[in-house]
Amino acid sequence: MRSLIDIKDLTTDEIESLIAVAEDIIAHPDVYAHKCDGKKLATLFFEPSTRTRLSFEAAMYELGGHVIGFSSAQNSSTAKGESVSDTVRTVSCYADIIAMRHPKEGAPLVASRRASVPIINAGDGGHNHPTQTLADLLTIHREKGGFENLTIGLCGDLKFGRTVHSLMTAMSRYAGTRFVLISPEELCIPEYIKSEVLDPQGIPYTECRELEPVMHELDILYMTRVQRERFFNEADYVRLKDTYILTEEKLRTARENLCIMHPLPRVNEISVSVDDDPRACYFKQVLYGKYIRMALILKLLGEANV
Ligand code: NCD
Q1: Is 91 found in the same domain as 213?
Q2: Does residue 5 contact residue 112 with C-beta atoms inside 8 Å?
């Protein structure tokens, strides 16, 4: 039985197969409409979510399956003091697959050791978010035609942004990847990403504080929200939250084929006027997230040859 806790749990070939299945679902949705008839997905969300939870639910419905779950810890027996292990052991009795989001790093890994059905990490604290990465990869594949020789600018909260950590881990596997890491000093990329992901693979990267001087170098600009819920003090959040606001003006020197991404939710980091720019890909990312989660559910349930 396979779970997806970290993007490294998938080989490069498996990621490519998932992308191929997602592309096939986009082209022939009818073929997949009953693949999960009679199956149940449980969404256990101990932290807020709009896209991840609802895209998992939409994905399961579009495969013909059913969904059960809760969308906040307060609505579950967690509020009575139940452990994650006991919760997933319980839910394993009701569902065929579980998507789980939790504020504690490592909680989905612990859950996967106690569950008798596959667990999908839908975000664990400031650590990882592998299914957002799959959505990001499908977006990059569709927009850029592949993964090689891309200069990727990641901008904003690189310390607590879990989507950043998983995306960097995934993209580090491809030849010619280069990262430009744009953040305030306090929100720079964690040391372990450098020592465990970048350095061993010899991935070139630069760190800088300002976006505009590096804009022209980028194939992809991945904007992120400052992760308010991970801050110890509100004053630091207020000081840092508007460090980078992407505007049309700042895109003046950007490449014509730049791909602007954001895992969403957006707070203030991208001006709404950028939404009409043909280079804005963040709402496409939302849609692709549903298709790639359909492919992932099929894979983990053994319903697809991926
Ligand atoms: C992200 C997350 O939850 O980490 N959102 C998402 O799942 N698309 C990004 C964020 O909350 O900033």
Answers
A1: no
A2: yes
Confidence of residue 158 (pLDDT cuts 50, 70, 90): very high
Q: Which amino acid is at 116?
A: S
Pocket test for ligand 1, best of 137, 159, 231, 264 (most atoms within 8 A of CB): 264
Let me know if residue 87 belongs to a domain. yes
CATH number of the domain bearing residue 136: 3.40.50.1370
Ligand 1 atom nearest to CA at 157: 12
Pair 29, 68 in one domain:
yes
- Distance (angstroms) between ligand 1 centre and the Cα of 251 equals 24
pLDDT at 306 over 70: no
Mean pLDDT throughout 185-211? Answer: 97
Q: Round the average pLDDT of the chain to a whole number and report it.
A: 97
One domain for residues 11 and 111: yes
Gap from CA of 265 to ligand 1 centroid (Å):
6
Cβ neighbors of 42 (< 8 A, separation 6 or more) are: 67, 68, 69, 91, 94, 95, 97, 98, 99
The share of the chain scoring above pLDDT 70, in percent, equals 99
Rounded to the nearest angstrom, the distance between the alpha carbon of 31 and the centre of ligand 1 is: 30
| DSSP conformation letters of 66-116 | EEEEESSGGGSGGGGT--HHHHHHHHTTT-SEEEEEESSTTHHHHHHHH-S
Predicted model pTM: 0.97
Q: Is residue 1 part of a domain?
A: no
Does residue 305 lie within any of the structural domains? no
**Whether residue 140 sits in one domain with residue 99:** no
Closest C-alpha to ligand 1, atom 8: 263
- The answer on pLDDT for 140 being more than 80 is yes
- Distance between CA atoms of residues 55 and 77, nearest Å: 24
In this predicted structure, what is the pLDDT of residue 252? 97
- 216 and 272 assigned to the same domain: yes
- Domain of 27 in residue numbering reads as 7-128+289-300
- Is residue 56 domain-resident? yes
